[in-house]
Amino acid sequence: MSAAVAALVALGFGVIAVRRRSHATVLVALQGLILGVTAISREGGESGAMAVAGAILIIRAAAIPLLLLLARRRTPERTLVAPTTSVATRLLVATAVVLVAVAATPPLGIADRVAEHGAVALVCLGIATVVVRRPALLQLLGILVAENGVYLLAIAVSGGVPAAIELGVLFDLVLVVTVAGAFAGKIHERVGSGDTDLLRGLRD
User: Fold this and answer.
1) Which of 96, 103, 152 shows the shortest CA–CA distance to 123?
2) Please, which pLDDT band fits residue 157 given cuts at 50, 70 and 90?
3) Alpha helices in 42-135 (DSSP H)
4) Of 12, 118, 139, 162, whose CB is crowded by the most CB atoms within 10 A?
5) ∠ CA 21-40-130 to the nearest 5 degrees?
6) What is the rounded radius of gyration, in angstroms, for the C-alpha atoms of the chain?
7) Of 59, 41, 62, residue with least CA distance to 51
8) Which whole-number Å values give the CA distances from 7 to 31, 104, 115, in the listed order?
9) pLDDT given for residue 92 in this prediction
10) Which of 15, 50, 18 is nearest to 140 (CA)?
């Protein structure tokens, strides 16, 4: 479990660091794959519910890149959207936020403290991605990173919480379709780019 948590957090930092939407999409998909495999490996064999939840997470990991690929094709960027901060600055800020949040969060009642810390770190990394990244699709991916933190926490609970995971999967798939397809598309239609900073220049 510790290795899976470390990989999930490392991929979360990667989403903040990379410039291309396609690369960030792959990193989030890998997170989903790791979560799915972890859920299946923790299946106790009594009801099979955790194995089902793991399978759904793996399907989600494959579906998200396909859905976002369609969204990217509808909103092509002529050039890369230049970040407002350097990679080093983004990683430094994200690291500081994660360390403070992990230190300040009390025990959540789960036996696996590594999973608790990893879940808190992923939620913080997701929020940080939404704050520091400008393209709309990258901000959406930040939300998915935060959701992956919730899934990690659910998997770590003794006995699992497969119902919560399945509802979350349905929610973020709807989120990807509606937000990436409609919101990002409208931004691109108005300003010719997915750069959300350009929205500041719009006036009634």
Assistant:
1) 152
2) confident
3) 49-74, 87-104, 113-132
4) 12
5) 25
6) 17
7) 41
8) 8, 22, 12
9) 93
10) 15
Of 171, 194, 178, 192, the residue nearest 56 (C-alpha): 171
Query: 68: which 2 tokens?
Result: 């976002």
Cα→Cα distances 104→2, 97, 176, 190, Å: 21, 11, 31, 42
Comparing 6-10, 41-45, 153-157, which segment has the lowest mean pLDDT? 41-45
- 43-67 pLDDT, tens per residue? 655 456 777 778 888 888 888 888 7
What percent of the chain stands above pLDDT 70?
Answer: 68
Domain range annotation of the chain = 2-72+118-198
* Cβ neighbours around 75 below 10 Å, total: 22
pTM equals: 0.78
Q: Stretch 143-161: mean pLDDT, rounded?
A: 82
* Mean pLDDT along residues 74-101: 78
* Distance in angstroms (rounded) separating the CA atoms of residues 171 and 51: 20
Q: What is the pLDDT of residue 119?
A: 92
What count of Cα atoms within 13 Å lies in the side-chain half-sphere of residue 156? 23
DSSP string, 140-157: HHHHHHHHHHHHHHHHHS
By 3-state DSSP, what share of the chain in percent is helix, strand and coil, each rounded to 5?
A: 75, 0, 20
Residue 178: phi, psi to the nearest 5?
Answer: -75, -50
- Alpha-carbon distance of 170 to 120, in angstroms, equals 22
